[in-house]
Structure formats: C-alpha cells, structure tokens
Amino acid sequence: MFITALLTNLKLKIMKKVLSLAVLMTILVSTASMADNAYSMPTLSNNSKSDDDPYRRGCLLYVQGDTVNAAKCFEKSAKAGNTEGIYMYGLFKMGGFGGVKVNEKAGLRMVHKAAENGVTNALYFLGEIYETGEYGCPKDKSVALDYYRKASQAGSFEGHVACGNSYWDNGDTIMAIKYWSKAVEETTPYSAQDEQRDALAQISYNLGWFCQYGIQQDIYEAIDYYQQSILYGNTKDAAFQLGLICLDGANGSEPDMKTAVYYFKIAAASGHPEVCVYVGDILRMSDSEEQALLYYLEGAKSGNQNAMCSLAELYYEREEYESAVYWASQCPDNVSAVFLLGCICYMQQDFEQAKYYWQQCVFRFHYADAITMLKCLDSGEFEWDGINKGLVDI
Description:
The chain has helices at 2-16, 21-34, 54-63, 67-79, 83-95, 104-116, 120-132, 141-153, 157-169, 173-185, 194-213, 219-231, 237-248, 257-269, 275-285, 289-301, 305-317, 321-329, 335-347, 351-365, 368-379. With 394 residues, the protein is an all-alpha fold.
C-alpha cells in the first residue's frame, strides 16, 4: 500500500510536476501505522507510544490533518537517522509539503540515501523517476530497471509489477511472466489493497492468456488466472476468455454451453463488444432464435459488425429478406455479409445483382465459396431453390 501511493500519486508529479499530498500521504502513513500492530492507527494522547517515535508521530499527525507538525516530526526523525524518516522528509522537500520549502535536489539526495539503506519505497520511487527522467535525473531505463529489481527483491508489489512491465516492453516475455507471477503469487484477492487491484486484474489476465495460448500451454492454470482476474474486477476480458474455454471444451472435454453463457453474460454486462455474438450463436444453436435475435440486436445497435452480420444471417434463414438486406448492407467490408447479399439477390431472382456481390467476394476477399457460386450460376447447375439453408454456410 505504501508503494502504491508512489505508483498512483508520485507518478502524477512526474508527469505534472505536482504531488498530490492528500492521497499520497494518507496511503503512506496508513502503511506506516499498519507496519506494527502497536501503532494501528492510534489516537494521539499523552500516553501514546508514538510520542517517542517522531516518524510514527508524523504519520499520525498527518492523518489528523496537521501537515505542519507532521513535517517537523519527519525532519526530527530524519536528523535522528531513521531511514524511513529520511525518505519521508525527502518527499516533503520535493513536494513542499507542510510548509517545507521546496528543494528538489536536497529532497532527491535524501531519497537516494534512504534507498542506499534499503528503504523499499525509495528504491521503487527512484526507478520511477529514472524511467521518466524527472527531478534532474537522466532518463535511463536500465538504471530504472535496476532500482525496480532491488525493490522487487525487497518484496515490493509495485517493484514486481514494474519489472514485469519493463521486461515486457523490452520483448522479454519469460522475465515479464516471472515478475508478474511474483506479484500475483504474493497477493490474494482478499489481502490486496484497493490501489493494487487494477494492476492485479490485468496481470492475472495476461498470465492466463500466456497459459492459454503460449508455448507451454496449461488450460487449467489459465482458468485459475482468469478467475483471479475476475475477482480483482476484470469481468470483461477474463470472463470472455473463460466463456471461450467453456465453449471449446478444456483439453478435449465436451463444450459446456451453460457455463459459457454464464461467463459471456458477465462479460456482456461489462461491455465486451463480441459477447453478444457468442451468446446469440449459442442460443441460436439451442433453437432459441428469439433470444438470439435480442442479443444480436444489442450488439448490432452498439456498432458491432459481427453482430450485424449474424443478425442478417438469422433474418435470411427466417426468409425476412428486407431486414437481412438492411443489416448486411451495414457492413460492406465483411465478406460474409457481402456473400449473403448475393444469396438474397439470388433468392429474389435478381441474378445479375447476385453475380455482382459474389464477384465482389472473389475480387476483394478471394472467397472460395463465392467462386463456387459463380460457377454454378454460370453453368445453371442449380435450380431456383438451390440456395437454401444447407447450401449457404457462412
């Protein structure tokens, strides 16, 4: 939680040169207070143990809104050689908190000193500023990665994440997976701080994707990661992938349509663009055409061309050609839609127009089925009712 503040708030300063003291310090001091059960957010009193510890007293004073006296406590703690106090007072100097005069260079020296003494937060923060080249630090991603690694070695969640991201950006998938796995393995959905959950949702999804499609595939491990991703809040992409796994059947098992629909509906509620098509297809295979129609319509109205094409196919099967033409015409760059328009024209005995659409499929999309249809049309090998639900398989 302590480092998360640097991820979410000090990063803002890096980008905007402005530190959000209110959010940053609340998180910092909360972690400091939680570090020792004896100091779990006590109320200041004459008997408080924190009175003898200027660092913790500074944390508590800040929580109570007294940033000026908090700054004095951190200064006292820093002068006494407390490495956490040195780090905190360095941040106060860099941000000008609590009436402290802004001195970025002096503050940065203090952060460096804290990092040299193993303060995890300082290590991660230095990785951030070397990655972005702020506060007079030269932009150097290799130095940044070195600090991230040190933070990771000290058990920093954000250090794990940053290392994984850095290696991923450098094209080293194996190392990215290694560090992302650390971040997930050392945290549980029930112990994760709120500020960590978004990162964990994405990391868990990434790891699931690698397990599903990577070199060493393990579909059951992929399922586990996707389920974790959902617990962290990724009800869109992770649920969609679980739906696909259930639809395909895991490791040769029979497809589980009921569970697939369950996950697809979760993804649909989160706005996944393709889910309406998948749910519609399942319902259509289950002879629930009216329900399938509703899902296709929902997807089509949101602009999804696959849903439009599926809707056109369903209307075609129902011989509602006017509606089929309308939706197929909405996606002129979809080969299935263009092919279907040719089929509809043929059914309406407009052979020249049918030929036009099928030629478009050949010339634009190199669609083999359209070649077959043109040959049949030219040779007269099929009769008027030759194009039926069995022949047209898009």
